[in-house]
Design brief:
Shape: elongated
Helix content: 40-55%
Largest sheet: 6 strands, mixed
Oligomer: single chain
Mean pLDDT: 93
Structural class: alpha+beta
Number of helices: 6
Low-confidence stretches: none
Radius of gyration: 23 Å
Distance between the termini: 44 Å
Number of domains: 2
Strand content: 15-25%
Amino acid sequence: MAKMTLWLLALLIMISAIIYQRTTGPTYPFRGTIEASGIEYSYRLLRSQETVSGAKISLPDVKAENYSATLHYKRFKTKDDFTAVPMKWESPKDSMRELVAALPVQPSAGKMEYYLTVNVEGADLRIPEAGQENIVLRYKDPVPSWILIPHIFMMFFSVLFGMRTGLAAIFKTDDMRKLAFITLGGMTFGGMILGPIVQKFAFGEYWTGFPFGGDLTDNKMLIMWVSWLVAVAAIGTRPRKKEGISRTVVICAALIMTAVYLIPHSMRGSELDYTKVDQGIAPEKAIGTGD
C-alpha cells in the first residue's frame, strides 16, 4: 500500500479517536433541545470553567410568550441544599438574547452539581430529565496558551505518528522504526513533560496518577508511553532476522494507544474534597481524584 495512503488512513483514525474521546468526556458540554411551537432550539450547558469567573449557564430564546427558567445548584458530593436562581434575560453583543444565570466560582478542581427547571408555553421541563444524573461542572485554573497549545499539538502529533507506525508494521513498510522513535519522542515531550506542566497550572499538581493517585488521564498517558518505550526497546534501530516479532510489538503499542483514546477524556480527574475544605483545610491541599 502506498505510504501516502497509509498517512491518510492514520490521519482518519487519529481524528476519529480524538473526536470520540473529547465528545464523550465528562467536561464536554451537555447538549439538548427545547421545543416550542413545533420548533426545536438547541442548548449547550457548560461542564468546565476557568476560575476567573462564575460559569455562565444559558438557554436560547425559544420565541415563546410564556418562557422562564431557574438554575438549581449545589457543591458536588455534599449535603448542601440546592440553591435556586431565576435565570434572567441578557442580550450579548452581536448575538441573540438568552436566559442566563451564573454558578458561583469555586477553587481549582471544585465541582458544582446543577440542573434547570424550565417552563415553556405552560409546560414544565427539567434539564436533565427526571431520573437522569444532574450536570456536574468542574473549575480549573487558567493554563497559559504557550504551554497548552504545544501540549495539544504534540499529543495530536503523537497519535498520528503512532497510528502510522502501527500501519507500517501491518503493511511491512520500511519506515516502521523511524516512525516508532518519532512517536515515542512526541509522547515524551508532549505527554510526559508538557502534560504535567499543564496539570500543574490547572490543578496545582504535576502528577496525580500511579503511584501517587488514581487520575485516569495521567495513568492513560503512562500506559501509552510505557507501551511505546517497550516497543522501541524491542525493535531497536536495525532490522532483525525475525521481523515478525518487531511488527507484533509495534502493533500492540498502536492498539494500546487506540484503546486508551476510546476512554473518555478527563475521567477520574482532579476533584476538590469539600469535606476537607469545610474542616478548614486549604483548597489546594484538599484535591484528590474523582470517581
